[in-house]
Amino acid sequence: MSEFPNDGAFASLPLTPELLANLDSLGYRAMTPVQARSLPLILAGRDVIAQAKTGSGKTAAFGLGLLSRLVVTHFRVQTLVLCPTRELADQVAGEIRRLARTLANVKVLTLCGGAPLGPQLASLAHGAHIVVGTPGRVEEHLRKGTLDLSSLETLVLDEADRMLGMGFQAAMEAIVAETPVDRQTLLFSATFSDEIRRIAGGLMRDPAEVAVVEAHDETTIRQRLYRVADESERFSVLCRLLLQYQPRSSVVFCNTRRETQEVADALCEVGFSALALHGDLEQRDRDRILVLFANHSVSILVATDVAARGLDIEALDAVFNYQIARDLEVHIHRIGRTGRAGSSGMACTLVTERESYRLERLVEFLGEPLEEAPLPPRDVLAQVPFKPDMATLQLDGGKKQKVRPGDILGALTGDGGIAGDQVGKIKVLERSAYVAVQREVAKAALAQLGTGKLKGRSFRARRISR
Known about the structure:
Blueprint: H1 17-25, H2 33-43, E1 48-51, H3 58-69, E2 79-82, H4 86-99, E3 108-111, H5 117-126, E4 130-133, H6 135-144, E5 154-158, H7 160-165, H8 169-176, E6 184-189, H9 194-203, E7 208-211, E8 221-228, H10 234-245, E9 250-254, H11 257-269, E10 274-277, H12 283-294, E11 300-304, H13 305-308, E12 318-321, H14 328-335, E13 345-352, H15 356-366, E14 390-395, H16 405-413, E15 423-428, E16 433-438, H17 442-451, E17 461-463
Parallel strand pairs: 1-6, 1-7, 2-4, 2-5, 3-4, 5-6, 8-13, 9-11, 9-12, 10-11, 12-13
Antiparallel strand pairs: 14-16, 14-17, 15-16
């Protein structure tokens, strides 16, 4: 089955009626390029190595493939999906659950570092069909003998290039050694580097290659180059750009952890809403920062490239390259985080005279010059920095206390409460929950949670965003 469906419709694929009905209810009509090119091969049982970035629809591509192969009556681990980060693993598991909701009793389990081991051991003891996890934690369970992959049918390596870049190669090889040799292997990567091809050669059997490289044009991403007089001016220029364009949601990329924290702190000092994301953070702090950024309680995320890998950041208005990335391929990944799904985005790169050589290399790598733009006027600095739309409240109850998003929404909008359209994203974790509300009603929402009850009991609530 090497030919692709002509009309690009999911109905043209040999999927079960249950899966097709669910796709229709989810609004999935036409396939994305990576789905149209890889799904027929996956459904035919081929090993596939696919070049596709986050946001291309790759999760549904391999998700539909593994669900088509699943035998629900055989209660054993039939699929393992490895992801570079806990955040991506959670997103992938959530998408697979959505795709599987019309199938009876499909159990999807996440196994990630940064989460307690005990609950994972209990979940594994009860069994699962599909495991989604990070290499380090999956390898740990294999060492402890708490995870059995002897019945594995499908192995998926999602964002394999990032797993390699984060040092997971040894763990990945140890995991693969515990899987049957006749499994189907699907490898998804944003790049087709020599290292990826070498890894694929050792893991896969005659893999079919699918490359979907979506170029960003001026209609989706506007790339601009801003020349900075000297290093002392760099931060001032960043502030001027933020004040001129006022993006609702933006990421500032720095090359070092130290600079990431320094820039975030400096932005806060002059009145912006910014948080730093880097490798020195504890997992709980990282989770909190990502919740605040995703629900628009923080406008600016200042991040290193490694910390930002694997994050599916939606509706990003702008990316600011505080410096040119050391790895030129990383520059492509950075700007690719904005202008997704047909929306427009902006990528601004700051360059000093000392970085001229790196700029020449970048232009050569891109194959086209970057458009130089004039710096915003200095008087823009007299403006008051913009504030985020939302504020976040944290409750000290979560899934362990049987708290659901609907319970929180009901408590906020109950007698004398705020309007439902003033409530934003709600994220319920194991022992806590986060809810975003419009900034102007944060005080009233906090009071409402403080006086009301969830599940017949009171929970402490506090505001955690500035």
